[in-house]
UniProtKB/TrEMBL annotation:
Provenance organism: Labeo rohita (Indian major carp)
Domain Myosin motor: 87-330
One MF annotation (Gene Ontology) recorded for this entry: microfilament motor activity
Myosin N-terminal SH3-like domain segment(s): 33-83
Keyword Oxidoreductase: no
CC terms in the record's Gene Ontology section: cytoplasm; membrane; myosin complex
Keywords: Actin-binding, ATP-binding, Calmodulin-binding, Coiled coil, Motor protein, Myosin, Nucleotide-binding
Cited Gene3D superfamilies: Kinesin motor domain (3.40.850.10), Myosin S1 fragment, N-terminal (2.30.30.360)
Binding site for ATP: 180-187
Protein's UniProt name: Heavy polypeptide skeletal muscle
GO BP annotations listed: actin filament organization; system development
Pfam families referenced in this protein's UniProt entry, alphabetically: Myosin_head (PF00063), Myosin_N (PF02736)
Lineage, broadest ranks: Eukaryota, Metazoa, Chordata, Craniata, Vertebrata
SUPFAM superfamilies in alphabetical order: P-loop containing nucleoside triphosphate hydrolases
Top-level taxon of origin: Eukaryota
Amino acid sequence: MSTDAEMAVYGKAAIYLRKPEKERIEAQNKPFDAKSACYVVDDKELYVKGTIKSKDGGKVTVIVNDTKEERVAKEDDVHPMNPPKFDKIEDMAMMTHLNEPSVLYNLKERYAAWMIYTYSGLFCATVNPYKWLPVYDAEVVAAYRGKKRMEAPPHIFSVSDNAYQFMLTDRENQSVLITGESGAGKTVNTKRVIQYFATVAVQGDKKKEQTPGKMQGSLEDQIIAANPLLEAYGNAKTVRNDNSSRFVSSLLCMYIQYSCGESGAGKTVNTKRVIQYFATVAVQGDKKKEQTPGKMQGSLEDQIIAANPLLEAYGNAKTVRNDNSSRFVT
Ligand SMILES: Nc1ncnc2c1ncn2[C@@H]1O[C@H](COP(=O)(O)OP(=O)(O)OP(=O)(O)O)[C@@H](O)[C@H]1O
Ligand SMILES: [Mg+2]
């Protein structure tokens, strides 16, 4: 586990990614009795922490830690607790007791400390903070760059970087599956994956220079300019999300296309046409969907044009045959 000095590369994000050493050591040295510490089923809280007093047949008498109330529960409703060395553990697959209350409490306790990302083996579980934490800045991207999963605190950037590394080493396509209920944060995290790739792609090609007359804003600005493509097709309100994308009937896939043809042959123009085609099908395919007031309303063509910066922002430059060549895109 890292020292405070090693966490300094994450800047002001550090405190939201991993607790300071002193706090970790204190938490891990709390007194603990492995035989009696448990979680017991609770009608209101789902599970509460308790201490086993006695066992009799299939029945267990537990003292609830917070209220000191004594309760008798079925053996199946009492679950072992992990020792304090697993406090706010970053990968829940490492737990000695991998039971439901241990997983839920770990997520809850990390969330209470504003650590929203937690691994569970291959998965990265995210709890929506509903407030912006400073964990997506450029210095955080840089800190995750090239680090193996276990070398850095859990983060969507680590998932992104790993996919990127596997793509480079295995020369295989990679996918990141993002799933969850409405309002869980899928769209927000998808944008973060795009932000990561965009930043890494630009950093990776130092030789490339910005072309005068092309979009010059910060990468963040460019990503925001591309957001309409992510959000234009059918977003509407749900109980949990003012900006829900779950009414989008078709998944829009963006291909970074390495089709054949010399510079200027029409590859980028044709890629845009492919996107236009899918966009048209997506809109036509969902007749029930209505445009949401306040959302982007222009014609499909306008929306696609507004989204073009994403295609063009990352490294286009001039060649002999094409003023806006994308062959320098890493
Ligand atoms: N990591 C985060 N940091 C800050 N706010 C977040 C984060 N994730 C989600 N949110 C907040 O929650 C809202 C809903 O998130 P998002 O739109 O990503 O949900 P979703 O999973 O895509 O839902 P749906 O299935 O309805 O499209 C966001 O508009 C944002 O306000
Ligand atoms: Mg969404």
